[in-house]
Each structure stands twice: as C-alpha cells, then as structure tokens.
Amino acid sequence: MLPTGNEYAQSQANEFLALNQLLLLAEQKLANTLRRGASLPLYKKANLKQNDRLILDGFKRKPFLTRRDLIDNSGDPSRRNYAGRHVQLWGSTEISKATPCWFPRGLNDVSNYLEFASRLVSVSGIKPRDTILVLSQPGHGSSNMLPYALAEALQNNCIAAQIIPANMGLEVHVRKWVDFLIENQPTVMIAEPRTALELAGIMAGMTNKPIMLDLRFILLYGISTAVQLAAVRQTYSTDIKLALGLDGMDIFGLECDHHQGIHLWLDTGVYEIIPDSEAAKESAKAGYTPTAFWLWEADKGTQGELVITNFNEVMPLVRYRTGYRVEYAGSGDCPCGRVHPRVKLL
Amino acid sequence: VTRSFFNRAVECLPLAEIIGLQRQNLVKADIIRHACDSALYKECWQQAGIGLKAISNRTELTQFPYINSASIRQAYARYSIAEIVNMENTRLWASTSGSTGEAKWIPYSDSDLEIFEQALMRDLYQQRGKVQAHCVLSFTSPAPFVGDMLTNLAMIAHTRLNLHQEMISVGLSEVESAVNLARQRRVDVLIAFPSVAMKLADEIRLHLKHEVERQWRETKNPKWYLASLYFKIKKPLVRDVFNLRYGLFSGESIHPYRKALRRDYGFEPYETYALTEFPCLNMDCEQHDGIHIWSDCCVPELIPQYELEKEESIPGYIPKAIFLDEAAASTLGEYVITTFSRALPLVRYRTSDVMQIVSTERCPCGRTHPRIRVLHRLDDIINMGLIRFSVQELENAMAHVDRHGVVHQWQIILERRGYKPSPRLIIEAADMTNADAMVEEVKECLGRIEILQKGIDTGLVLPPDIVLSPEIEIVTTATGKLRRVIYAANW
C-alpha cells in the first residue's frame, strides 16, 4: 500500500493538475467520503448522503462540525464510531491539553500520509545533503511518525538527506542533544512554534556557540498566533515556510518556495471559507448559521474562517470549522505552477 | 490470514549455513572499507598495524581491536561528525539515553533500516506464524530514542505490506488516557518495558477497585456489591479487564518480572534484546529458553569471564573473544558485535552487556540461531532497568553532602522487593554531627539525580534505603578491584 514509484509520480502529478481536473478528482473522493461518513454517529444529524456531492447547495446545507463534536465523539472509540473496517493507528492531541482526544487513521490514511511526506519533500524544497531536524511534541500526534515517513520518502525519491527525529517531551534529555546539534547543524527544521522556541531557549541557556547557523528554512506547523510566528522569525532569522494542520491530525497545507500563501491540496480535501461578515452575523444573532463559500470561488482577499472536508478513510471530517482565520490568496497564479488554492494565515 | 513472516530458510538453517550467510553479508557490506574512512577506527587501527581494506571471513575480524562506548564518545569529542560517519549513507539518527552523562548519537543507513525492519517482522510474527489483524498497545520512549523508531518502522512496514495492525502508541506520560482507549479497543498485544507494564498493572488494579466501589455506592446494584466483595477476597488483575494474548518486553531484563507478568496479565511474556547502537531486535521464542541472536545480521562474539578477569588483573592485556556460536552452553561473558552498517559500521564493539550462552544447539522451536540470556552491565552504570545512571552521577551527588557530615565511602546494593528495584545505599560518614539529619541530607542530594527521582516519583523504583555504617564491607572483583555497585542475589 505504500505508494509505489508510479503512485508517487501520480501524487506529484496531482500537484500540477489544472483546477477543473482537481475539482473532478476532489468530487470523486468527496463521494467516497460522504458514503463513509454517512454511517458514522458523528454525522447522524447531518444526514449525509453520497449524492450530496452534487453539491454544492445540498452539501452546504449540512451542519458544520466543531472541535466540541470531535471531543464528544472521541469519548467512545468503539468500532461503530469509525468508518471502514480497521483502524491502523491512533494519534492523540497534545497531552498538555486538559482532555487529549484520540484520532483514528485507517490503513489508507497512513498510506496517504506516507505519500504526503513525499509531497512535503518536493514542495518544501528538501535537497540532497540536507540535515532535517524534526521536532515532535509530547503526545502522539501526526508529528511522531513524520521523521520516519520522511525517511521513507527520501529513500524512495533517492535524495541523500538525513533526519534527526527529536521529541521535546523530556527536557532532561533535550539538554543532552545540544552538542550534537551544534556539531551536526540542521539545514531544515520541521517544528511547531512552541517547540522551536523551547529548543532555542534551552540551547541559548547552555552554550554561547552559534547554533542553527546552517538552517535554510523552517517548516512551521501548528501556528496559532502571529506573535508566535514573529518570535520564531526573530529567534532563528531564517526563511520560514508554513504548513497547516490540525492538532493531532495530519498536515493538509504547505507553502511553496514562492511564499504566496499555503497551498491547500484539493486531492486531500475540499475547503470552504466563512467570511468575516457571516461570522459577525452569527455572533450577533443566536441560532444563525453562517454561509460558507468554496474557497476557490471566493473573491481573492476574502477573509474568514477556514472550513475543511477531508477524504480520510476512518474518520473523515465533513465541514469541520478549523478555527483558523485566513485570507484567500488565489488559486491559479502561483509562480510554482500549482493551482491548489492558497490561503494566508491571519 | 494473508502471509507469514516466519522465514524458515534463514531462521532454521543449520548453524554452519547461518555462518555462511553471515560471511556473505559481512563481505557484501564491505564494512572494513567503510570503517577505514571513519575517524572512529583510523587511529586505533593504525596503532594495531591493521593494513587490511577488506576481509573475506570473520576469522580475519579477530585481528581488529575492540571499540566500546567510550571510543564512540571520544571520537565525537575529537573529530567532526563528518569524519566519523558516512554522511552520504546516513538516513536517520537515534540517541542513547546518556546514562553515563553523554548521549551517544548513532546513524543508520537505508540498509540498516531494512535489516531492523526484517528482524522486527520476524519477531512480531514469530509466535503466531500467520498474520492476523491485532490491536497493539505500545509504550515507547520518545524520539530520538530508538523505541520510537522501531514502533514507527513497524507501522510503516505494515502499511507498505497492506497489513492491518491497529496500533495505539503512547509515551509514559499518557498512560491513563491510553489505557481507557486500549480497553475500549480490546487491545490484545502489549509492547512495553517490564517495569512499566507492572506499574500499569498496579494502576489498573487500584482503578478497578475504586471503580467497583464507586459503582456500588452510586447505583446500589447488587452486582457491584458482589464485585466489590470479590475484590476484597481476590486482588483485581489486569487480566480481569484486558484479554491480552501476549506481550513483548524490552529495555531491561524480564527475568525478575516474568512471574508477576504471567500472574497479572495472564499471558506468556516474550523478551527482546537490542541496543541503540544496533537495534536489530532479538527475541525469545515460544520455548522461552533464551533469546535467539539473529546471527545472519551481525557477527556476535563473547569475551568469556576468565578473559575479562585477566584483563582486569594484567595491565594492557587484550582479552580474547570467541564467536557466540562457538561458545559452550553456560559460558558467561561480555557481548561484542560487528555490524554491517554503511553509515557507521561497528567493528568489534564491546557492548558492556554481560550475557550467558543458553545453547547453540537447535531450539525445539526449530530455530538454530544461538540463544543467550542477558544478565547485567559490566560498566559503571547503576542499572535498575529503565532507570539507570552512572556511578559518577552518584559520586557527584554524594560530594554535595556537607551540612551534617561528609560521605567518606559509599556502596550501593541493588536488591528487589518483589519485582521492584530497591536500592540500598550504604554510607560510611565522616565528621557526622547528627545521624538522622545526615540521612535526610543524603536523600536530598540523591534527588539531584533526575532520572532516579523520576523513577521514585513514578513508582518504577522504590526509594533508596539509606544505611549509615561505621565501616563499609569492601567487596572486590575476582582480581581485587573495588566494587561499589553490587547486584544482590535476588536481583
């Protein structure tokens, strides 16, 4: 199931499909997602049907899914709560959260994740001789498997780069890495802002030697505030590429070298935006359900909350309100040639 | 049922043919040429007058000098990583815990990862023969420790082979939430450190007792009353809640825990052995009569005890090793390995692990790879399984005792109470003004050893018993060397 050479090629070809082809692909995948979602208690109220994909109005009458729904659902991880016959891997949200949630992934989800690691390599611009430090957070979110998935992707793509996996959970051990990281300076770091800043703090407290001088870029995911982003920029003084993902679940958006916004991959999900004007109405009027627009149909510059529907096998998210406030940055005009819609984090 | 990972053609070969396979792999890996480029070997090989660039059989290996953990540390201290490691062939790094202060970073190449994955699949499926979907609860140490790598390699291998294997992989800090999930998902396989599994058993036992009592108080349902009565007579056990079919244990010797694991979990525990330096997982089979060392994946040797004693008593003496498969049953000694890595081959690496040969004969399970039992460490590590630290750390902590007297001499005796490590620290004090206060201060200073404190806080280790003694009974090795760390008979 791990993508073969051809599937990697297909995945990379999907990066450069035209928008109408991508939408056709997304629609096919959406049909399967809705079929799987229809059997889940999580979507009982939504009354999902496969032909809801004949969207757009029908699909958009379905209720939004919120984080609260996911937390409530995670209390009962019995088989009936998940589509597909088998869960392959459980990931959790960060353990520092009061109630960590467990998210299941199916075999195809893990396989897609491995494929996505390959995309991460090509989009982010990892090169031969790179030393990639992958910092994961305490708990078992998607970041824990990332270094090993990347190793597999690098091997399959014949890129001679090396990976240093590291979890920030045990500070007593983190302090033992410092000399090694000074000696084997990473050229790429993949981290959340908090872990990146924590590491910098620990290192600064231990040595006056220059650290992370060779960093070409940081792939930053899990950003929650602009202040965090600014702090990472100031601390590391290097190029920062942003990735978008959900706590404990997979990354679904990556920024390319051109920094024109984060590409949201239409072969892994479909995306809507709830404009700020609609959110304002929701706050003002109890019971008001805001209207969302397909991201690629929104006017460039539209600001609002990002809503995703992903194509996961075991627990697909249908119209999940991410809580991310974004600005739509366009689809077809990125110099990298990819037309997957782009957003800027606000 | 889809396929089997039992590889009769490798696992059950006559020993002579395994050695043939080992030779092929040794020659194919061309490790001497790779090692020649590494600063880890250059100097010591030059000193030993080694001029070889390639070898054609393992006997030629015996002319190469040993290296050990200190050699790797010293190399990292003196040379750049690029001078030691073949960076072109390095894919992943893992680190040791640094029990002796410095963590060692070990590089793995793609071919190493392939070997580890093959051994993993051999082990994971050996007792079942055929692959079925299972639900595994795995307690692992986080990256950059090697446990994280092995768990994820297993997950990726299963996915690549289109095999369903449900995995709940958690760190030690997520026990409570994971246990809940594991119960609901009907986990049937456990992967853990033995001490962590027993701690888990203790916690589940307590939780069960409280839960039954709470249910009775709140519902007044007679079934809960009966259950609470039952638990007053009989200790609740993990097996009352989980229906685990088997457990794989690593990281420390299973020996002191085996009985308790059987009792509490109701399964037969399997023991594994691997090093961060070479995480090719070796495992005991259903006969539970020693761990099979996969001898096609490396060249294993043993420095017998009498050679180790000679080394201690004769300055400059270099002990002779024998190939593991040529050692007689019951031979005791230090484990030495030569690996086939392209990133950093280990040539005659002394592991400091003392092991005993169980047998080199064919096992009743059909496998022919030699079987061993891991006993203890040879170096200056105070090894209480998952909790380990160096003698130097204890020495440093004792040097801070100065308010009510000073520590003149100390000796630590590692015993067990039940299956739990119970250290007894014997102190010979000088200038002591108040005995009780001195004991308190020693305890306080022991708290400086973070890993020990963590072990005590989490209940993996019992708090050290501090004993003041006017004179410490000197214990020496056979050759008269002072022993400050003593493993008691019940260890």
Order of helices and strands of chain A: HHHHEEHEHEHEHEHEEEEHEEEE
The termini of chain A sit apart by: 37 Å
Based on DSSP secondary structure assignment, what is the total number of beta strands of chain B? Answer: 21
Main beta sheet of chain A: 12 strands, mixed
- The percent range for helix content of chain A is 25-40%
State the helical fraction of chain B. 25-40%
Q: Would you tell me the overall average pLDDT of chain A?
A: 83
Mean pLDDT of chain B: 87
Computed over alpha carbons, the radius of gyration of chain B is: 24 Å
Measured between the Cα atoms of the first and last residue of chain B, the distance is 42 Å
Report the total helices of chain A. 10
What fraction of the residues of chain A are assigned to beta strands by DSSP? 15-25%
Please count the helical segments of chain B.
Answer: 16
Name the assembly state. heterodimer
- Which structural class is indicated by helix and strand composition of chain A? alpha/beta
Low-confidence spans of chain A? 1-6
Q: In one word, what is the shape of chain A?
A: globular
Give an overview of the whole structure.
The complex is a heterodimer of chains A (346) and B (491). Chain A has 346 residues and is α/β, with parallel strands linked by helices. Chain A contains ten helices and 14 strands. Chain A has helices at 5-15, 19-38, 57-60, 67-74, 107-124, 146-156, 171-183, 193-206, 226-236, 276-284; strands at residues 89-92, 102-105, 131-136, 162-167, 188-191, 217-220, 239-245, 251-255, 262-264, 269-275, 293-294, 303-310, 320-330, 342-345. Chain A is globular, with a radius of gyration of 20 Å. Chain A starts with a helix and ends with a strand. Residues 1-6 of chain A have low confidence and may be disordered. Helix content of chain B is 35%, strand content 24%. Chain B contains 16 helices and 21 strands. In chain B, the strands form four sheets. In chain B, strands 1, 4, 5, 6, 7, 8, 9, 10, 11, 12, 13, 14 and 15 form a 13-stranded mixed sheet that branches. Chain B has a four-stranded mixed sheet with strand order 20-19-18-21, with helices on one face. In chain B, strand 7, helix 12 and strand 8 (268-275) form a beta-alpha-beta unit. In chain B, helix 10 (194-219) packs antiparallel against helix 11 (222-233). Chain B is globular, with a radius of gyration of 24 Å. The mean pLDDT of chain B is 87. At the A-B interface, strand 1, helix 5, helix 6, strand 4 and helix 7 of A face strand 2, helix 8, strand 5, helix 9 and helix 16 of B.
